[in-house]
Design the sequence.
């Protein structure tokens, strides 16, 4: 099947980033959210992102105008009926996703594929609430989606080969790099990253080393571009908590359990870059990249 | 600030020439103790109080082995260190500098200044098995090897995901195959014994690589004996 129009449900950080990826590669893109305020915020961030792309000479103003014209926002879920695929990037909760997919199933034609950007929930379980589980596939973009090429593609137990192939082809057409993983909790990235980050937080919690010492060690010793605590501050501790709790609920692996320090820091408002303080202190809060 | 180096036996951190060794003087406020005969070197060093810092090379052992421990209040001018290296890879420029709860800041600062004067980067940590990097990465490496066996994804997709998703220079499978699965076994087995945490229990592929290297050594020894007998 040929995909012409891409829907994105949810205009948070991930949804807005995915919409940029789709629109930038020439797809007509419709972003749905329940409030106009959320859409406006995403549109403003998106325009800011593309303004930086022009500034950095990655795109010409004419190209950006065309991209922005192909990118529309809506609070009417019925507008997604025009889409060949809808990528959901709503709150990481099975009930919320089931409710959304049931509504989408009611408005979209049977041919529309549903993709989930879940990072930890099971594709098979999400698909089970969709009314079209053969046409549901996992497409986990990385944060920030507008800059990161990787997409973890995961078939559910009942996903058809045609669905997986069409989503894989879309991924490549959007200039992304897909990898195939089993429908396991956390897929690849979060399955490894969350326990590792929890261990890093436990190291800080136990006073074994200061955040800057840990980051310096990892960057110098292993050549990582970012230290794990710098990355946690970028992702946000509230997001880390959500993902880690979802992973722990699925795996019950001790390393996936969230250290108590995370909840203490969240209570204190130390969420990371977005609140100006996490493991480090910051100033400024613009959308990443351009 | 001047410093001296006392080396007895083989040093894992500085097996080859390095600015740290070249800059050393006959005497100084800090002494770096290198090699695999630390207790003997400390005896030869004599009174340690005359130094601002005595910094001993560690392998998998804790600093407390040389200083003794005292109800969580231990700490003196003696610190530990290890220069990080992954398996058969060359040593990196990272020094993990090991302190105890009551180590005076002046001793830490003096030790840090010496390493930094030789172009090395210093991360300070408490006296725990695995220090910073090994303590954090060995469970991750074991998990990657286990999940490869369980068919989560191909080795190539596992590595691609972790490289592209997290900006790691190398994925865990390629990294371990290159730097040595048997060496990973040695480090993670030592941590498993020290910590008793199942995350450090060597993954099957690491154990196989270790057993294979032992088998190869046994075969080599037999060939060598045959040659020697033939020469008699």
Sequence:
């Amino acid at each position: 099947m040929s995909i012409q129009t891409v829907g994105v449900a949810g205009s948070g950080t991930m949804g807005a980033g995915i919409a940029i990826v789709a629109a930038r590669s020439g797809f007509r893109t419709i972003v749905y959210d329940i409030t106009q305020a959320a859409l406006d915020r995403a549109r403003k961030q998106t325009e800011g992102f593309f303004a930086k792309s022009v500034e950095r000479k990655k795109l010409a103003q004419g190209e950006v105008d065309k991209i922005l014209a192909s990118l529309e926002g809506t609070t009417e879920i019925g507008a997604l009926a025009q889409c060949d695929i809808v990528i959901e990037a709503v709150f990481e909760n099975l009930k919320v996703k089931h409710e959304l997919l049931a509504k989408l199933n009611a408005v979209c034609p049977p041919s529309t594929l549903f993709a989930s950007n879940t990072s930890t929930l099971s594709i098979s379980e999400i698909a089970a609430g969709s009314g079209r589980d053969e046409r549901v596939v996992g497409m986990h973009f990385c944060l920030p989606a507008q800059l990161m090429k990787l997409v973890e593609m995961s078939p559910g137990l009942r996903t058809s080969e045609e669905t997986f192939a069409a989503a894989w082809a879309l991924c490549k057409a959007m200039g992304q790099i897909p990898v195939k993983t089993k429908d396991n909790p956390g897929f690849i990235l979060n399955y490894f990253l969350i326990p590792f980050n929890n261990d890093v937080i436990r190291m800080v919690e136990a006073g074994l080393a200061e955040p800057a010492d840990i980051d310096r060690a990892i960057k110098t010793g292993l050549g990582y571009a970012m230290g794990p605590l710098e990355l946690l501050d970028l992702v946000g501790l509230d997001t880390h908590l959500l993902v880690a709790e979802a992973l722990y609920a699925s795996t019950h692996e001790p390393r996936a359990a969230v250290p108590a320090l995370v909840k203490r820091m969240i209570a204190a408002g130390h969420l990371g870059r977005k609140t100006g303080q996490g493991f480090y202190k910051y100033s400024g809060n613009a959308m990443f990249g351009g | 600030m001047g410093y001296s180096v006392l080396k007895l036996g083989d040093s894992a951190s500085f097996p080859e020439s390095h600015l740290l060794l070249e800059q050393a003087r006959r005497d100084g406020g800090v002494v770096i103790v290198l090699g695999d005969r630390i207790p003997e070197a400390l005896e030869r060093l004599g009174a340690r109080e005359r130094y601002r810092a005595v910094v001993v090379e560690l392998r998998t052992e804790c600093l407390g082995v040389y200083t003794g421990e005292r109800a969580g209040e231990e700490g003196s001018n003696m610190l530990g260190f290890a220069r990080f290296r992954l398996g058969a890879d060359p040593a990196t420029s990272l020094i993990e500098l090991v302190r105890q709860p009551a180590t005076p800041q002046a001793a830490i600062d003096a030790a840090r200044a010496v390493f930094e004067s030789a172009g090395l980067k210093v991360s300070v940590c408490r006296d725990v098995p695995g220090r910073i990097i090994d303590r954090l990465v060995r469970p991750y490496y074991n998990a990657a090897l286990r999940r490869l066996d369980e068919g989560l994804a191909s080795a190539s997709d596992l590595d691609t995901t972790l490289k592209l998703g997290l900006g790691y220079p190398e994925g865990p499978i390629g990294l371990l195959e290159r730097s040595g699965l048997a060496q990973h076994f040695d480090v993670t087995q030592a941590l498993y014994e020290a910590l008793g945490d199942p995350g450090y229990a060597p993954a099957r592929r690491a154990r196989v690589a270790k057993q294979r290297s032992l088998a190869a050594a046994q075969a080599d020894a037999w060939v060598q004996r045959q040659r020697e007998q033939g020469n008699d």
Chain A has eleven helices and eight strands. The first strand of chain A starts at residue 5 and ends at 9. Chain A has a mean pLDDT of 94.
